Structures are given as structure tokens and as C-alpha cells.
Backbone:
């Protein structure tokens, strides 16, 4: 199966996409190992600071050795140079906060999934024109589930993944899926600063299992 289709299927099956960044490469790797142990098979490492690319290379090397069935994508890719750098580092897919046609083109050239961030119908239309199979509604907490309910009829068949402020509770998760979300981006509400700074891997393991269960029940 081609990687683009495999990544889409994995996101839809898992129903959520964990995402994070941490400056320490070893802690980042331990977070990914913990998510994997809890059952996660697709996740995003965000390009939020200077060490991100070097960290990604270290993580990718370990992932290929220890977790070959894990799809590891790169997030917060804002321009063509960032896209090319992470593609060269072996990313499995690209996630962006905006709709940048050059980033889309780079991803498509390498037959990789590109997930742009949108917050208006105009941006969604632009993302569709640039070949987005999944569109990230970001920041999702600003608009809420009603936004997807309102736009999904205008863009039939489009896959929407709310990201940003998605709460880890039954009501919020169910609300998003009921509105028509295909999956949820889970950032700091799952992988909090406290978990990262205090190395609370056991808590992350438990929280991830809970999140996966809540998602499965809501899908």
C-alpha cells in the first residue's frame, strides 16, 4: 500500500493524531515510545523550535529500528524549506498550520499526505484546490464542533480533523465526531507541559489508553 493512503487509513482508524514537541531529544523519544506502547500507530512531531529537525532525525532512526509500523509525521511546517528538510529526514507526512501551495506541492511530489490548517470556508476551498485529503481545523477551540456541522454540507466528502484545544473528555470528543470530524488532533490536552517536564511517562500511558478508548466509543 502506498504510504499516503496508508497514513490516511491509519489516522481514520486510530481516530486521533497525538502531536507534540520537546527540546530534549531523549525525552521526545521516550514520549513516542510511551504513545506507541499505549497503542498509537500514527503521530506528529511538531516543528516548534530550532532543535526539532535534529530531534526528528534521532527519533526517526529509533522508530525505524524499534517501531517499524509507526507512521511519524512532521507538524508546523510553514514553508518550502522546512518541508524539504523534513522530507529529506524521512517524514511520513506533513501537517501545516496554514494552506501553503508550495508546501503542498513538495508533499505531493514525494507522494506524501499533506494536512493543512484552515479556519474559514475560503481557506478550505484553497486547501481542496491544492489537493488536501484531510484538512485540519485549527485552532479548533475557537470555532467549536458547530463549525464542522455548518461547512461539511458545502464541502461534501471532505475529511476534517479539529486540532487545538480538543478536550480529553467524553462530551467534547463525542461532540466533534457527531459534528462530522474524521479524527482529532490531540496536543497539550494529552501531552501536557507537566508530563514533558516531569517525565510522567506512566501517566501519559494511562491517559493515552483512555483517549483511544474515548475516541473509539465516539466514532
Residues:
Amino acid at each position: 500500500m502506498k504510504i499516503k493512503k496508508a497514513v490516511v487509513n491509519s489516522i481514520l482508524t486510530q481516530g486521533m493524531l497525538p502531536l507534540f514537541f520537546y527540546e530534549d531529544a531523549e525525552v521526545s523519544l521516550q514520549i513516542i515510545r510511551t504513545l506507541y506502547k499505549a497503542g498509537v500507530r500514527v503521530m506528529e512531531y511538531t516543528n516548534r523550535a530550532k532543535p526539532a529537525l535534529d530531534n526528528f532525525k534521532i527519533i526517526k532512526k529509533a522508530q525505524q529500528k524499534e517501531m517499524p509500523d509507526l507512521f511519524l509525521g512532521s507538524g508546523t511546517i510553514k514553508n518550502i524549506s522546512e518541508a524539504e528538510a523534513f522530507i529529506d529526514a524521512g517524514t511520513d507526512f506533513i501537517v501545516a498550520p496554514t494552506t501553503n501551495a508550495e508546501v503542498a506541492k513538495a508533499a505531493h511530489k514525494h507522494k506524501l499526505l499533506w494536512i493543512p490548517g484552515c479556519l474559514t470556508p475560503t481557506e478550505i476551498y484553497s486547501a481542496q484546490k491544492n489537493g488536501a485529503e484531510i484538512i485540519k481545523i485549527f485552532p479548533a477551540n475557537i470555532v467549536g464542533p458547530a463549525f464542522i456541522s455548518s461547512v461539511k454540507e458545502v464541502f461534501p466528502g471532505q475529511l476534517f480533523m479539529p486540532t487545538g484545544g480538543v478536550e480529553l473528555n467524553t462530551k467534547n470528543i463525542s461532540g466533534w465526531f457527531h459534528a462530522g470530524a474524521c479524527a482529532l488532533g490531540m496536543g497539550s490536552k494529552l501531552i501536557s507541559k507537566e508530563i514533558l517536564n516531569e517525565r510522567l511517562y506512566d501517566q501519559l500511558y494511562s491517559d493515552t489508553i483512555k483517549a483511544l478508548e474515548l475516541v473509539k466509543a465516539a466514532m
Q: What stands out?
A: The domain at 3-218 is CATH 3.20.20.70 (TIM Barrel). The first strand starts at residue 16 and ends at 20. The chain has a mean pLDDT of 97. Residues 18 and 186 are 5 Å apart (CA to CA).
